[in-house]
């Protein structure tokens, strides 16, 4: 790879297509380093098929679960049904904003993960929860009525607004990654995954458990990738402060659908990740 021409490392962040030499002009995305290649290799090892997860046993067992347990699980699974659609849609502008073709390529791979997650949670909504609707869009509308309000606000208001700001060039990719990777994935979705895996550890819904386990493995590298991007970007103290402030509120986005002990354990993780990456040093220096 070391002897490749720079143009051979350029990708279209919207489609993942490698650009030809003739398509590369001044200002096109070119890599400043090749560390993102590590994450593309991780992606290759984690591929799985959302349509292959067997949900038949889950569909049979779902009506037999206690009402309160079904209410709690429905809230979290409906939240994921909405959230994964949102991230699959609104991640697109992040690649172009990165101004680095290898980072854009890995963000494209991440978006492909999110599309797979959306398929899984739509299958759960249709086959297990039996939400009303004959189409994915109709089931998403039904899920909105069941998802916690805090999750809807983050994924259907704040995330689209951030994507719009990135697409218009009015904010930097560090702010976008701070929201998306550190808050939405690193706090909100991680809390929901932990709650689902803990609740379903008894084997009550084996297909859902297996699917969420695979989703969590994908999200781990997403969070690590976002943190590595922030290390390169070296965000301002204002960006870091904003991320930390958002983390405190985000931990409670699920309301009572996620046990308080899980939310309280995950809330400090954002600060710990930023500290390990030495990104809190910027804040201390500005104080």
Give an account of the 3D structure:
There is one protein chain. The protein is mainly alpha-helical. It has one domain: Ribonucleotide Reductase, subunit A (Orthogonal Bundle), CATH 1.10.620.20. The protein is built from 13 helices and no strands. The longest helix has 28 residues. The radius of gyration is 19 Å and the shape is globular.
Secondary-structure topology with pairs:
Blueprint: H1 36-45, H2 56-61, H3 67-90, H4 92-98, H5 101-128, H6 136-144, H7 149-168, H8 173-199, H9 206-233, H10 237-250, H11 260-266, H12 269-276, H13 280-286
Helix pairs in contact: 1-5, 3-5, 3-6, 3-7, 3-8, 4-5, 4-7, 5-9, 7-8, 8-9, 8-10, 10-13
């Amino acid at each position: 790879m070391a002897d490749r021409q720079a143009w051979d490392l350029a990708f279209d962040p919207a489609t993942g297509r490698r650009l030809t030499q003739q398509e590369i002009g001044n200002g096109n995305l070119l890599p400043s380093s090749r560390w993102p290649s590590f994450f593309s290799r991780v992606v290759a090892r984690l591929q799985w098929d959302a349509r292959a997860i067997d949900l038949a046993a889950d569909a049979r067992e779902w009506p037999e679960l206690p009402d309160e347990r079904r209410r709690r699980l429905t809230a979290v699974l409906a939240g994921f049904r909405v959230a994964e659609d949102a991230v699959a849609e609104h991640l697109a502008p992040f690649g172009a904003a990165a101004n680095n073709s290898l980072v854009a390529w890995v963000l494209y791979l991440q978006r492909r993960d999110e599309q797979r997650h959306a398929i899984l949670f739509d299958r759960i909504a249709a086959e297990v929860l039996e939400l009303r609707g004959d189409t994915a869009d109709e089931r998403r509308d039904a899920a909105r009525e069941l998802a916690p309000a805090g999750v809807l606000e983050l994924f259907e208001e704040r995330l689209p607004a951030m994507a719009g700001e990135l697409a218009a060039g009015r904010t930097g990719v560090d702010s976008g990654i701070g929201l998306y990777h550190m808050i939405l994935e690193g706090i909100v979705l991680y809390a929901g995954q932990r709650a689902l895996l803990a609740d379903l550890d008894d084997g009550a819904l084996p297909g859902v458990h297996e699917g969420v386990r695979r989703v969590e493995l994908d999200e781990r590298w997403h969070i690590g990738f976002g943190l590595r991007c922030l290390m390169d970007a070296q965000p301002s103290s204002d960006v870091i402060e904003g991320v930390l402030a958002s983390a405190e509120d985000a931990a409670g986005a699920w309301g009572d659908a996620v046990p308080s002990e899980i939310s309280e354990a995950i809330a400090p993780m954002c600060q710990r990740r930023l500290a390990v990456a030495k990104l809190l040093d910027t804040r201390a220096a500005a104080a």
